[in-house]
Amino acid sequence: MAILDNLDNRLFVYDQKYWKKVMSKDYCIYSAPKVIEVEDGVVLPMIKRTDISTRNAAFKGGICDNSGTFVAGLNRKVGKPTANLSCTVAYEIPNDLQHRHETVVFGGVLYGAFSHLITESLSRLWWFADNPETPYKFIFLDSPAFGGFKHYGILEAIGLPKDRFEIIRTPTRFDKIIVPEEAYHMLSGYRPGAEKIYAFASSRIEAGPYKKVYLSRSMLKADELTYNEQYFEDFYRKRGFEIIYPEQLPFSEQISIVAGANEIVASEGGLIYLSQFCRPNTRVTILRRAFEPHFSTFLAVQMKIRNCYLVDAYFNFLPATLPGDSSVYFMGPTICWRDYLDKTGICYETEETSVEQYVKPYIYDYLVEWGNKAAQLSTYKDYRNTSLIDIVENVNLMFCGTRIKRKAYPDRDDIVKLRNENIALKGETATLKGIFQSALTEQIKNRPEELQKVVQDSGIDNIVLVDDRQVNQLKKRVAQLEEQLHDRERSLSWRITKPLRILKAWIKRLFKKEE
Residues near 482 by Cβ (< 8 Å), separated by ≥ 6? Predict the structure, then answer.
């Protein structure tokens, strides 16, 4: 586990400054994962939460103790229990609970999506790598996201055949549940030991024969579309690489191929996580498909890969998100790609990087498919904040090799109008804050019932009617409003300005009564 050195010669990207910053950060959480034992522990299958809203969903359930106190589930972002797809709260233990007189090990939450499965779903199995001969059965929960778990071959490949684990689908109490802590948090970082399960799995399987491997997505059946990956397949095939379509192979064979390779090339996405099974000094080149940074890529690189290169290999001048099931990606011989070839000493003919030959023939199909996808309301919401200047910048950068000065271009008229209205609302907030500071401390103790009603109408929760705490809570609320006023799209929202109007009206009434 280490931060990549010599980043100037490893990052062949459009935005060097940004990527040097994110790749220089240490994502290791330097506290080793612990193990706890829960006597009379209860397993609650995951169900969707309705009290919060996230991109896909958040869940409740997991492991809890005999009193119903939550113990473990899926903590995707340390310090943020409401992160998308997380499971960080339990629900009430039902009365008709099955009781099994067994000691079991909680193995984690199983996903239906490959990339989540070989990262987050294996997060607690460092304990299995340390205790492969344990007599206890492993129990898992099935995440409702992405269609549920179906990749049984992955668990078998790492050493857990079907008779050694069980997916718990009904609320069940066990005499004891051993709970290893998560070592991998996809949206935060990883802990020492997270890599153990990958090394253990690789050690069980004979290394494959191919020394140079290209992992392709071109045969993958998915909602997303990637144009022109065939270009890279042909380029590397000419240089002796074996082109591998992982989804067509048993997972044990995928591990074998990666473990035996000296050099791996793959486009960014779920295939990168297979590199966790490679040897530490294997050379790995990641061909990026979109500007949107995929945070878990940083973790994969830092956890295992010592000899890594990132190359922006995309011509997505129109918006595309990564990950994005409805996105359209357009790959090809970019400026960054040619720079990578030159600086790493890979020989090529000039015509092999011809935009005329390998980019232009695909532009029409790319535009048509992108238009079809973007016209869907479910996709449009991901793209709606893109401005014209973003597209102008992309075209100049990818096709002309030049950077424009964004600050020199004026914003749209409606954005300027919103910004000015934000400034006016911010001034009103500042005025209200001054009134609060000078009046509330004295007046709050005389009208507790009236204040409580105003507080409830304003959306300020859990306030305690004690002078200093009330003042602090109101100050925090004003600070929150100031922050919200900077949001261009919500600055005119009736919902956001309602607390200001209510509090302002109340203060006016308060002083009127004093008169």
Answer: 426, 429, 430
